[in-house]
């Protein structure tokens, strides 16, 4: 087949630089011809990804394909470089990229999207298999699948397309960095504190320390802002604000705990701000003597009306809420400007009597230093001011409603912190330079000639406020919270500013709480809260969350003592700041390649300092509130950790797990092995773990929390199919181990033969010092009926394990380990049950519809009856299948597969320690007795000895075991191991090996040699004679086991070793068969003859 690479494309100077051509291949015709766009009909379709004139997708289509094209334009992605529909009727296709025929796509953002992305469809690039394998075998696809690839669709992608279609239809309201972040943060940071407490803070701490307090609070928020910016620019940010940033960085445990208390804090903050507004209104009503009921009830009434109005604005949509915020900001800016203007307007006698003298150097000098009174100090004043600096997450909390959160959050947040800090410092300095600390308010308190002055700045300006030292005064920085209103050019504007500050903060919190809570519920971290995840309208508004926030706010307005709850709320916010800082530090410390924030102006150690600073400030503000915050967060953290939500967000916690594991593994390589630290590290040939659960269970019993356990599976057969099956099952089988709480790893290899695969596993499994030292396999029950190659592989694996100096444990149970047939039957029954339930649902739905139609449904009753008959037939079929399969699959096999999961009653573990293998034969049962399921079993030791030395042998063995600190119930010395077995037992053994004997001694030499060449695996007469004594011993041992250990819970027995090249595979299998036949579960153990026990300390 020749391929035309369209050379004219490269010769034409006006041609596009990059083209992808979809070319039809015809097996009957070796030539592929390109036809111009205008040709009819074209043999291929050409897609230009860059068009100099139109800069859009240009597609040519065959006659009659217009409908398909229109379909694609409606449903597909409208970005450039998208694939397009084409005809694949009995054809195969490939792409032409950069003038070369290849399926390789160019880099494109749509390949990197999440499946549920709302900002664009996820496209699926060709898999490595499709590119790597032969074109003819992998490219042929159906028309439907081609259209699916062209549109970049998948199952989840269909939902994405639907969400995009609705987005295009209704139009989401998205905010820029000014309206979405800057305005919100400034409004939330500027609160009531600016107007009614900042002057008092300056009075107490002085201008110098007051500015330091402001800068210290700003340092906390600035570091948090830098950390927030770093996290927000490390990938796409969705809705959820602080919760989203923390959860995606530190994981669901931290994110889930802080998300809930952060949402709750915002909900209660609504009540706090509304009560602040209501208190101001009530003060005005009180001054005009127009209270409705009394002060407390008036606050409740006004607060309720205010919350309802704010709820209405929020529910109306983010667009209305944003407009309201802009109006409130304008009012707030006018109020602040009004204050600064008032400071330069010449004062009057009344204002002078209240302590306002315009800018005076003497007042600045007097107020520069601190003058703490009434038990206040630096930290107590700082604690009062700090809540005024919070609110920096107001923009981040609506991250889902921002056009570009990655640039909006850093820009808006940091600029808001800068502007508000400058405003706070300016107001503090101006107030401290214009107003004295104490004033009487009496215009007659002036200095008359001859009157002594106390040296204060007021004296120098002609006023005597000295009596404030002995009795309380009502005016001045220390006494009057309405200093800003007095100083301002127009007092009512300051009141309007207070209204604006409280209402804007309340509105921001009322929006933030439901948004954060909705994101938390969508992630399903807390199972019972899915109800609040649903959104409504074009902006996916959390109406249910708004209602819940309204209820919480109303409850605290009506019944809560807000002065008590306020410190806890401040600490909730600080806890989230601390975790954001810690998230930035943790992500940097984990050194994950995925941590690449576009915002560079951060430092991991500064972020850690910020986290510690936040924790310190929590205790400075209120120590008991800090303890309550930590307790609640710890409780929620433990709860989420226990529930283990099924999410994978690639958190820095996961990255740090890897780094720690890698460091520990590398550190372990420098530690030399020591016999005291020996532990069984097992490579168990379980196949798929769920197929041989009993083999995994017994292995897991002596490796859990103690050693390495790797469940291994070998795929044999056509390499391509094996690799595909292996890759597809890896995660599923590891997940099965995790779900069933098996502390084990799953490993699989594809190999030409079973033995080659196991050989690879024996050599390459593990990491550093964490490498298997023991091979665990099940006994091959079907060795007599299996092909000779399988038996050769099985015995060869044991030889290979010994060659690589691994211990070997062969486990045998009466029913065998493989329950794959049972699993298959269960799967079939589950499918039938699902079909039955689906059929029932269909019938109910049909009956319901017919009931709605009334009399018309009567005429269609026949069809319903037919369905009912079909259902009855289906049910009877299911019952028949169930009854049939109950007889087919062995119930005892199911019970045997779970026998090692059950708690073993009082009994014994009989250890037949016949040969010294380094101690593994005794160590394995000892470890078993440490487990809860086996702790009631006593160890009985059986070993060989001489008749005339039974007591001495017992004492020697008891002394050895006591030095090893291994408790035992009894020691038995077996003296008659080497006598011949009885005739019946030996006859059974001979009959068992008869089919595998060569009997060469009965034939001439030529025939015997020919038989040896044809069946080298058969047992020769010479071999049987050479190992007759050893065969006797295996048969005799079975007789002794039947006699002494038939009632044991478990038998642990020294595994006989077959010399390579001397003992045939079938003779060795016969030894193992006769040795372990008709017994309780048997572990045949052989260590690698290196010490695993020591009596030295």
Automatic annotation (TrEMBL):
All residue ranges annotated as the Amino acid permease/ SLC12A domain in the record: 180-683
Q: Which reaction does it catalyse?
A: K(+)(out) + 2 chloride(out) + Na(+)(out) = K(+)(in) + 2 chloride(in) + Na(+)(in)
Q: Where is the SLC12A transporter C-terminal domain?
A: 692-1097
GO MF term set: sodium:potassium:chloride symporter activity
**What does the UniProt entry say about where the protein is found?**
Cell membrane
Where does it sit, as one GO cellular component term?
A: apical plasma membrane
**Coiled coil feature spans:** 822-849
**Residue ranges of region Disordered?**
28-52
* Domain Amino acid permease N-terminal residues, every copy: 87-153
Family named by the database record: Belongs to the SLC12A transporter family.
Q: What is this protein called?
A: Solute carrier family 12 member 1
Q: What is the lineage of its organism?
A: Eukaryota, Metazoa, Chordata, Craniata, Vertebrata
């Amino acid at each position: 087949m020749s391929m035309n690479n369209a050379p004219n494309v490269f010769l034409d100077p006006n041609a596009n630089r990059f083209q992808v051509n979809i070319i039809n291949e015809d097996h009957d015709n070796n030539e592929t011809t390109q036809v111009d766009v205008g040709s009819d009909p074209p043999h291929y379709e050409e897609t230009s990804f860059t068009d100099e004139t139109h800069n859009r997708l240009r597609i040519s289509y065959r006659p009659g394909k217009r409908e398909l094209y229109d379909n694609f334009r409606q449903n597909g992605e409208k970005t450039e470089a998208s694939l397009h529909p084409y005809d694949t009727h009995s054809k195969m296709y490939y792409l032409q990229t950069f003038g070369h025929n290849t399926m390789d796509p160019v880099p494109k953002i749509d390949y990197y999207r999440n499946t549920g992305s709302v900002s664009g469809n996820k496209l699926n690039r060709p898999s490595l298999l499709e590119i790597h394998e032969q074109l003819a075998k992998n490219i042929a696809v159906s028309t439907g699948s081609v259209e699916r690839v062209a549109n970049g669709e998948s199952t989840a992608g269909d939902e994405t397309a639907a969400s995009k279609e609705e987005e295009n239809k209704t139009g989401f309201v998205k905010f820029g960095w000014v309206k979405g972040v800057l305005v919100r943060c400034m409004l939330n940071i500027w609160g009531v504190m600016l107007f009614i407490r900042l002057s008092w803070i300056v009075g107490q701490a002085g201008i110098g320390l007051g500015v330091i307090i402001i800068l210290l609070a700003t340092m906390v928020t600035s570091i948090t802002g830098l950390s927030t910016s770093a996290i927000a620019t490390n990938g796409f940010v969705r809705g959820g604000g602080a919760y989203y940033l923390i959860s995606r960085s530190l994981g669901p445990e931290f994110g889930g705990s802080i998300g809930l208390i952060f949402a709750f804090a915002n909900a209660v903050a609504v009540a706090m701000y509304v009560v602040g507004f209501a208190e101001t209104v009530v003060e005005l009503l009180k001054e005009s003597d127009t209270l409705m009921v009394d002060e407390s009830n008036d606050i409740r009434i006004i607060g309720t009306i205010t919350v309802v109005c704010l709820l209405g604005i929020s529910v109306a949509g983010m667009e209305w809420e944003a407009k309201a915020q802009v109006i409130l900001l304008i009012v707030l800016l006018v109020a602040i400007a009004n204050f600064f203007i008032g400071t330069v307007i010449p004062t009057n006698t009344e204002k002078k009597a209240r302590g306002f003298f315009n800018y005076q150097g003497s007042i600045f000098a007097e107020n520069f230093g601190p003058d703490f009174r009434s038990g206040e100090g630096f930290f107590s004043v700082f604690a009062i001011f700090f809540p005024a600096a919070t609110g920096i997450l107001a923009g981040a909390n609506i991250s889902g409603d921002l056009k570009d959160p990655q640039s909006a959050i850093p820009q808006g947040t940091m600029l808001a912190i800068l502007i508000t800090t400058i405003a706070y410092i300016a107001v503090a300095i101006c107030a401290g330079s214009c107003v004295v600390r104490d004033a009487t308010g009496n215009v007659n308190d002036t200095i008359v000639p001859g009157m002594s002055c106390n040296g204060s700045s007021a004296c120098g300006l002609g006023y005597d406020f000295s009596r404030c030292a002995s009795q309380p005064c009502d005016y001045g920085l220390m006494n009057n919270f309405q200093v800003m209103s007095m100083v301002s050019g127009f007092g009512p504007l300051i009141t309007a500013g207070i209204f604006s500050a409280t209402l804007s903060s309340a509105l921001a919190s009322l929006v933030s709480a439901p948004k954060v809570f909705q994101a938390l519920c969508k992630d399903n971290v807390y199972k019972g809260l899915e109800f609040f995840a649903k959104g409504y309208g074009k902006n996916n508004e959390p109406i249910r969350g708004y209602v819940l926030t309204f209820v919480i706010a109303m409850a605290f307005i009506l019944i809560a003592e807000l002065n008590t709850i306020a410190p806890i709320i401040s600490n909730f916010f600080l806890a989230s700041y601390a975790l954001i800082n810690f998230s930035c530090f943790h992500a940097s410390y984990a050194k994950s390649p995925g941590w690449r924030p576009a915002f560079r102006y951060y430092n991991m150690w500064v972020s850690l300092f910020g986290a510690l600073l936040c924790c310190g400030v929590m205790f400075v503000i209120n120590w008991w509130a800090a303890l309550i915050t930590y307790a609640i967060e710890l409780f929620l953290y433990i709860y989420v950790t226990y529930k283990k939500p099924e999410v994978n967000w690639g958190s820095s916690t996961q990255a740090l797990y890897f780094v720690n594991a890698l460091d520990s593994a590398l550190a372990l390589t420098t530690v030399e092995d020591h016999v005291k630290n020996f532990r069984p590290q097992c490579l168990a040939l379980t196949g798929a773990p769920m197929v041989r659960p009993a083999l995994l269970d017994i292995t897991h019993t002596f490796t859990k929390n103690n050693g390495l356990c790797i469940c291994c599976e070998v795929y044999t057969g056509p390499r391509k199919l094996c690799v595909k099956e292996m890759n597809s099952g890896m995660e599923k089988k590891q997940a099965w181990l995790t779900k069933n709480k098996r502390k084990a790893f799953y490993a699989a290899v594809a190999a030409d033969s079973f033995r080659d695969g196991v050989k690879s596993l024996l050599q390459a499994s593990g990491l550093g010092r964490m490498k298997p030292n023991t091979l665990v396999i099940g006994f091959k029950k079907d060795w007599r009926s299996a092909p000779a190659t399988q038996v050769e592989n099985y015995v060869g694996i044991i030889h290979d394990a010994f060659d690589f100096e691994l211990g070997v444990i062969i486990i045998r149970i009466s029913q065998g380990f493989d329950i794959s047939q049972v699993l298959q039957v269960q799967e079939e029954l589950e499918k039938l049950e699902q079909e039955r339930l689906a059929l029932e649902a269909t019938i109910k739905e049909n009956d319901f519809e017919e009931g709605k139609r009334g009399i018309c449904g009567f005429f269609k009753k026949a069809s319903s009856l037919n369905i009912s008959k079909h259902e009855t037939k289906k049910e009877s079929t299911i019952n028949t299948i169930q009854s049939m399969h109950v007889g087919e699959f062995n119930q005892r096999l199911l019970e045997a597969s779970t026998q090692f999961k059950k708690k073993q009653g009082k009994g014994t573990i009989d250890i037949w320690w016949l040969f010294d293998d380094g101690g593994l034969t005794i160590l394995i049962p000892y470890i078993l007795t440490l487990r809860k399921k086996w702790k009631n079993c006593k160890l009985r030791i059986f070993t060989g000895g001489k008749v005339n030395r039974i007591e001495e042998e017992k004492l020697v063995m008891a002394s050895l075991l006591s030095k090893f600190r291994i408790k035992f119930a009894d020691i038995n010395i077996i003296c008659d191991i080497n006598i011949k077995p009885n005739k019946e037992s030996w006859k059974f053994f001979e009959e068992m090996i008869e089919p595998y004997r060569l009997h060469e001694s009965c034939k001439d030499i030529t025939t015997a040699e020919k038989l040896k060449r044809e069946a080298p695996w058969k047992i020769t007469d010479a071999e049987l004679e050479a190992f007759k004594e050893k065969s006797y011993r295996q048969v005799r041992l079975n007789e002794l086991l039947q006699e002494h250990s038939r009632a044991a819970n478990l038998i642990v027995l020294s595994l006989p070793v077959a010399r390579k090249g001397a003992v045939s595979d079938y003779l060795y299998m016969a030894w193992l068969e006769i040795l372990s036949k008709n017994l309780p579960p048997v572990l045949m153990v052989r260590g690698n003859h290196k010490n695993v026990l020591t009596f030295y300390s």
